[in-house]
Amino acid sequence: MNNFDSLKAVIYNEHDLKYQMTSEILKISKIKNKEIIEFYNEEDLSLKIIELKRKYRSKEVLILKEFMGRKFQKCPGSPNVICCNYYLLNTCFNCLYNCTYCFLNSYLNSFGIVQFVNLDDLKDLIKVHCSSVDHIVRIGTGEFTDSLMFDQVTSISSDLIESTSAIPNLFLEFKTKSSNVNHLEKIKNRGNTVIAWSVNTQTNIDQYEADTSNIRERIDAAVKVQNWGYNTAFHFDPIIKYSNFMEEYFKIIEFMADKLNYSKIAWISLGCFRYTPGFKDIIKYSFPDEKLTVQEMFPGPDGKYRYLAPERIEIFKKISEKIRFHFPGVFIYLCMEDSKMWHEVFGKDYTASEDLENDFNNHLKKNFMK
Question: Are 177 and 221 in contact, with CB atoms under 8 Å apart?
């Protein structure tokens, strides 16, 4: 598994030394003998990146800079599908891992991992939004990065957990493919925090999730945080087909059942591999030996290519039934599927995303709100 030690160079702007995160990362980087480079403006940053490209791979360079865009936003979802009305915190762009299917591969001109350093106002953005609504709000940091990949250095999760733990209608999720959780044990006030993992078979992890923790390490980390009092969640997404994939997904669920306390699982999501038009050519360029896109796939209601509907129905039904057998009462939801799929798989007649959100929130209110 890649971690902070995998980074070879850190580049920063002196103007950003006013942020504690910048100073802390530079201090640790010096101790670990990483190359530290200062840039003076955006033009200079572009020139420095050209130089860095000659020496390092993209995942070996950390760029520290301010983020001037929206730090808090509703998940954009996809048109014509049922979404869970999740909210996102933009804390970083890119991650240490090298997943073949990651949509960030679409950004062909991006280089390095861009860590935003001006995040002191995140807790205020969360508090303002949560106080403005009368329902549960689910917020996560893992849309454009991995939430925990070097979180012990940035302290993003611990700062947010401590500062927002008293908000009763907040479920704050940190999603990861790592086993980097030891720093979370010391946090005293945890609120409704959810530590979540992307789950896949080891076959798919070996083939498509380079530099991440293996599945046993992820589940062992989940056991740790459950023992410390955290809620957990799991995302079987993307489910990727191969000759005996269903048997191997079943074995993962059985392994999880042997290890985990199901009463501490706040939710589980299911989603099959999907991609936007044009993405096939992009990943072929970066991963010429990939086998993801050789399956027969057709555009869905949002334009994304997916496995055929009958195949997805069968996959979702079998995996959800297996999960319910081992984890009775757990809340399972489909990611980015339309109302027809919800009806076929779960018998739910959702006509809008708010229908899913209401069911989701009622479950959390009944079983997990503190």
Answer: no
